[in-house]
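Open question from group meeting: does this chain pack into something compact, or does most of it stay loose? Before anyone orders reagents, we agreed to write out a predicted structure and look at it together. Recording both the input and the output here so the notebook holds the full record.
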Amino acid sequence: MEADGFVSRRTSVETPGVDSRVAGAAAGAEFRWLGGRLLDATGGFVGSLPPRMTGEQDFAPVLHRATPETSTSVEPEIDYEGLPQGVATSTHMLAGAVAGIMEHCLMYPIDCVKTRMQSLHPEPGARYRNVMDALRQIVRTEGVWRPIRGVNVLAVGAGPAHALYFACYEKIKFSLSDAIHPGTNSHFANGVAGCMATVLHDAMMNPAEVVKQRMQMFNSPYRSVLDCMGSLLRREGPAAFYRSYTTQLTMNVPFQALHFMTYEYLQELLNPHRQYNPSSHVVSGALAGALAAAATTPLDVCKTLLNTQEAATAAGAVGAAAGSRHISGLGEAFRTVYRMGGVPAFFKGVQARVIYQMPSTAISWSVYEFFKYIITKRQHERRLRGDRDGDK
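Structure tokens returned:
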């Protein structure tokens, strides 16, 4: 009886402390330590208390949150695949511009070879067996700087063109994917985003492509980029800079649709968790670029013909008509290519085009994804610092 009376008195003392649910982690921790000490001293006392009075279940979560270990718990995983909400469009544009400039400038010598190998009637000094043979001959006969002649105009055009390209692609891709399959990747959305981004990209890039390809041709008569632009304006008018625009769109829309869909599909296979993985970006970009480049080579040959107007100097080979007028339009370009070389002419330079596009798209995607990762990581760290400062 005395023991029971002791238990009752002890319970009346302890219960208010348990039921009051002491606010604050520190107070809760002190209470449990004190209770534990008293319980040890009385021996078997815990067993005589009802579970409601012990408050063990109620206090455990509070104590868990108060411990130092959980305050430095695992940080949320960085979702870099889509840049953080609220990131300015200029972020996408900066990453895209750097990626585009690096892509075109690093691969420019191969692009020069591609342009020459697509010539429908190359002069004897410009007949090449393969890409490496072309580079050796160009350097040996025309100088070490010849393969990069005109790279400056391409760099100037590639910056704003790729800035619009990637910003438009990211915006449309995520908006359309959310509308079709919220929270998932949509190949249709990737393809449509790539096509829409191409329209803006080519509008900025087409004049630079015209000047670049005229500078790349064998025995190009232009002393500099400005000389080439001035000559085009005087002799052919402003329309010369956009004569191949529709052909370029006709080529680049399927190219980019195939390119983006292949890249995103390969990312699902090689990088299913969509983490920053440079090797997967390089491999996916290279394979996507190679496939799209090979499939659209005939259109690229027609684009080169429209940009260089090579048939004007080969009127004798073509026949009566072409001499003084310019080739305009995709249909006329197709007919001219076929008359001058048949079906094989549509695949002239395919090797150089694939060799150019594989590292080109690999560089573009790896640089772009790297910038996305760095920008996202910094924003994530800045947000975490803000949260910690707010907690203090």
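Observations to bring back to the group:
The first helix runs from residue 2 to 19.
The two ends are 53 Å apart (CA to CA).
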